[in-house]
Every structure is written in C-alpha cells, then in structure tokens.
Amino acid sequence: MTMDEYANLDSLIHRWDARCKQLGLTTLIFGFATVNSWQWLLLMLAISSSLYMLSKLPLSFLIRRLRYPSLFVLGLVVMLPFVSGQTIIWQIGPLAVKQEGCLAMLLITGRFVAIMTLCLVMFSTNSMLTTVKALQWGGMSPVMVDMILLSYRYLFELDKQLKTMATALRLRGFKSRQINQRNLSIFAALAGTLFVRSYEQSEQVYKAMRLRGYGSNQLVGAKHSGNRLWGENDRPVAGILRPYRDFSSLVLMILCMMIGVIFMGVSVW
Prior knowledge:
single chain; 269 residues; mainly alpha; 10 helices; 2 strands; 3% strand
C-alpha cells in the first residue's frame, strides 16, 4: 500500500534532492504528455526506463503498481483500432482493424507507461515526509500539506479496518469469488460501513485538532510558520531537506527540464 517502501535504497535517484527531482521530473512528465506522434514513443520509454533502472527499484514493484491502472487504460483504448481511422490493415467480415486506431492505442499506452514510471520514480525514492516537504517548499498551501499528511496517515487505519472486516467475513464462511446478489449486497454493506467509520474518524480527528488550537492565528509555544499543524521546531518534516549544495542534483534537474522542454517544443511545432 505504501509508495515509499523502497525509499531507503542507495542509488543516484535516491540521492537526488527531492526539490530538484520534483521540478525536473514534473517538467519531463508534461513533456511526455504533450507528445502526439508515435515516432517519439521509443525515446520516451527509453528515458523513463533508464531513470527507473538508475533508481534500483525492483521490476516487480513497477508491475504491481501498473497492474490496476493498466486495466483502466486498456478499457479506454481497446476499441480504438476498430473505430478510429480509415486505413484498414486487417478485416474479417464486418470487423476491421484500422492503422490510425492502432497507432493511437500504441501512443496512449506508451505515454501512460512512461508517465506512470516517472511518477513512481519521483514518489517512491523519497519518504512521504520528504516529498510533502518538497511540495511545501514549492509553494503548496499549508492546508493542502496538512490534508495530504493526515490522509496518508489514516489510509493505513482504513486499510486495517478493511482487513479486519474481511477476516471476519471469511471466518463466517463468506466466499468473495462468487458473484451473486447476496455477495453484492454484502460488498455494498462493507463499503458503507467503511465509509461511515472513515467519516466518524475524520470527525474525531477534526475535534482533537481544534481542541489543540489548529486553525488559530497564534499557536502557544510555536512561531507562526504557515504550517499550522506543527510548530516551528516539532514538525515531523522539518529539517529533512538539505540546502542546495549538491551540484549533481542541479545538473540532473536541468537535464530533465531541457528534455521535457524539447518534447513540448517538438509537439507544438
């Protein structure tokens, strides 16, 4: 469930400053997203694959993270070869496969894999706290920072509750692999229960934060620093990011930004 389970590996990408990494890879992602020609597909995949190999993340991690999003993308593009374009390359009866549709499917799938790979490299090579601190340095609202950290924290609580309810169902003889009206009603009740519990949990967290002075203009014993969930010295993300002294981080950031801008320019022109 965690995105940062391999954040402690030792690689060039892990040592890359989180702020430079986010700026460089975000620019590269935008560059990949603007590509509208399949001729650039191999270069995009080569760049994203090279960065992933440099990060030393296991291949099984990439496959596991791409598994469910790939099903969604596949459901969107699987009909393109049959409905898009006019150049027929293969036909059986009324079913015709068109060249333009195949190229469009190939381009969308390639962009998806390249962009998702870069996202995994960006968010899986640093701890969640370091990533959020870098987002805050980049200008993200303190309220959004607090919401991300709290959501990330309580996702594990919801996952724990879901596993507990699933275990209770199995002990009562419930077989989830059978799709029928009874099981669907149980799934609906399980989702509703989880939703109610998450709402109650959010209410309790909100009341506890209000009792501790969250949202007030002045915090007792802490300087106002824009992030009101923690004081100046006791924030869990304080002191994680180093000053800009790593020349290699700047070089990597500039290189990725240049490649991203080149892809944008090629797409526009």
